Amino acid sequence: MDKKTCLEKLRLVGVLAFATVDAGGNPQIRNISALHYEPEAVYFFTARGKNFCQELCRDGRVQVLGYTKYNEMIRLSGTAVLVEEGEQKKWIDTIFTEQPYLANVYPGDTRDIGIIFCIRDAQIEYFNLGAHPIFRECYTLGKGKITPKGFVITEQCVGCGACVKVCPQNCIREGAPYKIVQEHCLHCGACAECCPAKAVRRLG
Amino acid sequence: MDKKTCLEKLRLVGVLAFATVDAGGNPQIRNISALHYEPEAVYFFTARGKNFCQELCRDGRVQVLGYTKYNEMIRLSGTAVLVEEGEQKKWIDTIFTEQPYLANVYPGDTRDIGIIFCIRDAQIEYFNLGAHPIFRECYTLGKGKITPKGFVITEQCVGCGACVKVCPQNCIREGAPYKIVQEHCLHCGACAECCPAKAVRRLG
Question: Domain 4Fe-4S ferredoxin-type: where (chains A, B) (predicted)?
């Protein structure tokens, strides 16, 4: 997998889930299909009166999730920024051309209540729960950074092998220390719970 | 639509998006299909080591979103609570029976790293963007409360009709004051922006 393929897969999914945090610290989630993809950015349309718009203007942090028909999860974690004034109309019209159903929701000039945000910097996480073993990988978009997640076995490992026995994905390899094959790890934490030497450290 | 139908529709969607907020205030979203529905509650499985579990234990606020094949969005906003110790195994086994693919991800006893949370109190929002006009409705689960959203026209209305002309869904009716038909409202905010009397108030 790669970044370009992930974005293309998201485009094919069509309807994505966007999560933000509101002023009260509550998780907020909604579906968005009014999207346009550029090679290094995702543009999306919402309306200026929506709480979603308020949340993005207050704190642009957003996570975007798509689930493909091949049971892959693709997640973007980044910042949504307001597109500059002079470019707003161009992207609104682009999205309305690509997504004809939008003209039924916002007929004629009523699309003028629209506003365009863009995600240029993001972490992209690819996660395939249907593969054996499961498979995950991370990429970056723009200045996005990869946040380490999951678990790692430290030098405190005593080599007892207890973690190997409980790993659902059989993704821990012998060694000094033992090693988690990160791309096949569920992040379930079974290894950390069972380690008698407390050698398994949570990342992130 | 009603609460029961919404839950049944979510069950048929299968894979839902769950949003939480992490300790750093970041939105977090992931797909969950390890679910079991009771008439008045939704049970779900995750693993004790996952960040998702940490977020739920720290702050149970969660939003759950499903997108049906009929282009309906169904959203639960509520609190996820840890199911009591003595009931954990029963629900894990129920979910693994209903979702056979889980035994591929967590074979044999490795499912013991699982943990079950339950949503009993929630607001349910139904939103159909494909209907003409669009349609929305809210219901409650358990002690869930409906949070008013969108806009309302107050007594300051001067009856000029400007809002009627800009409403994409044509859902504002004449009167003193004019009135927004809430079940057909996009929450786009066009009426609020154009009102010369500032009579349109944001809810929530």
Answer: 148-177, 178-204
Bridge partners (DSSP) listed for residue A49: none
Q: Rounded CA gap, A202 and A148, in Å?
A: 9
**pLDDT tens digits for chain B (204 residues)?**
899 999 999 999 999 999 999 999 999 999 999 999 999 999 999 999 999 999 999 999 999 999 999 999 999 999 999 999 999 999 999 999 999 999 999 999 999 999 999 999 999 999 999 898 999 999 999 999 999 999 999 999 999 999 999 999 999 999 999 999 999 999 999 999 999 999 999 998
Question: With contacts defined as CB-CB under 8 Å, which chain B residues touch A29?
Answer: 17, 19, 29, 63-65, 75
Interface residue A61 vs chain B (CB under 8 A):
yes
In chain B, domain spans: 3-141, 151-202
Give the Cα separation of A51 and A35 in Å (integer): 18
Continuous H helices in B14-77:
51-58
B contacts of A27 (beta carbons < 8 Å) = 19-21, 27-28, 61-63
ipTM of the complex: 0.96
Measure in Å the smallest separation between the Cα of B158 and chain A Cα atoms: 21
Which residue from B17, B107, B166 is facing A29, i.e. has the nearest CB?
A: B17
